[in-house]
Design goal:
The complex is a heterodimer. Chain A contains no helices and 12 strands. Chain A is mostly beta strands. Chain B contains no helices and 11 strands. The chains are: A mainly beta, B mainly beta.
C-alpha cells in the first residue's frame, strides 16, 4: 500500500523567510512523487515532480524538493517566501505499475505568509 | 492555466437525485482521471479512463460511474446522491508517454442538500 503524510497541517512564515513543508511517504516500490499547490477557489497546479532522476528537483516559482530514500521524505522548500505563495500545498505519491495514474494525496499543508 | 475545463462550476442538488459533471481534457491528452475533494481534505482518486474504458478505480461505490468520449472529453455521473457526496470534483488529464504527471481542471463544487 502507498500513503503519504504531510507533517504539518498549517505553516506560518514571514515574507522573505525560508519555507519548509514536510512530507513523508510509504511505498514498497520506487514511487513517483509530486507537489501540487491549490490557491483558494482554484484547481491544482503542479509545482514539481520526482521520477527517479536527480534527487534534488527544481520546480516553478523558486520551489524545490529533495527525495531522500533513506528517510522516505520529500520535503518542499523555498529560500524566500512571497505573499503570493500563500495557498494549500499537497504532497502526492504514485506507485506506477497496476496503480499507474492513481495519485494518492496527503492531507495538505496550508501556508500563511505574513508581511 | 492547464487547458482542462470543467462544467458546471457550481451545482446544488438534493439527496437521491442524479448528477452529471463534465470535463474537457487538455489537447493531446488521452487519459482522464476524476478525484473527489471533501472540505478540508486532500483529493481522493475515483477512477481513470483510457481509450473510452475505465482502467483503474478507487474506493468508491458503483453509483459513481463515468464515460470517456472519442475526443477524450469525459463525464462523471453520480446516482442516488448522498449528503456526503458534497465536495469539489476535480478532473485531470494526462498525455501519452509523459509519465504520470496529471493536469487538473478548476473543479465543480457540488452541494447536496
Amino acid at each position: 500500500a502507498q500513503s503519504v503524510t504531510q507533517l504539518d497541517s498549517h505553516v506560518s512564515v514571514s515574507e522573505g523567510t525560508p519555507v519548509l513543508l514536510r512530507c513523508n511517504y510509504s511505498s514498497s516500490y520506487s514511487p513517483s512523487l509530486f507537489w501540487y499547490v491549490q490557491h483558494p477557489n482554484k484547481g491544482l497546479q503542479l509545482l514539481l515532480k520526482y521520477t527517479s532522476a536527480a534527487t534534488l528537483v527544481k520546480g516553478i516559482n523558486g520551489f524545490e524538493a529533495e527525495f531522500k530514500k533513506s528517510e522516505t521524505s520529500f520535503h518542499l522548500t523555498k529560500p524566500s517566501a512571497h505573499m503570493s505563495d500563500a495557498a494549500e500545498y499537497f504532497c502526492v505519491v504514485s506507485l506506477g505499475g497496476t496503480s499507474y495514474g492513481k495519485l494518492t494525496f496527503g492531507q495538505g499543508t496550508i501556508l500563511t505568509v505574513h508581511p | 492555466e492547464t487547458g482542462v475545463t470543467q462544467s458546471p462550476t457550481h451545482l446544488i442538488k438534493t439527496r437521491g437525485q442524479q448528477v452529471t459533471l463534465r470535463c474537457s481534457s487538455q489537447s493531446g491528452h488521452n487519459t482522464v482521471s476524476w478525484y473527489q475533494q471533501a472540505l478540508g481534505q486532500g483529493p481522493q482518486f475515483i477512477f481513470q479512463y483510457y481509450r473510452e474504458e475505465e482502467n483503474g478505480r478507487g474506493n468508491f461505490p458503483p453509483r459513481f460511474s463515468g464515460l470517456q468520449f472519442p475526443n477524450y472529453s469525459s463525464e462523471l455521473n453520480v446516482n442516488a446522491l448522498e449528503l456526503d457526496d458534497s465536495a469539489l470534483y476535480l478532473c485531470a488529464s494526462r498525455a501519452p508517454g509523459r509519465g504520470e504527471t496529471q493536469y487538473f481542471g478548476p473543479g465543480t463544487r457540488l452541494l447536496v442538500l
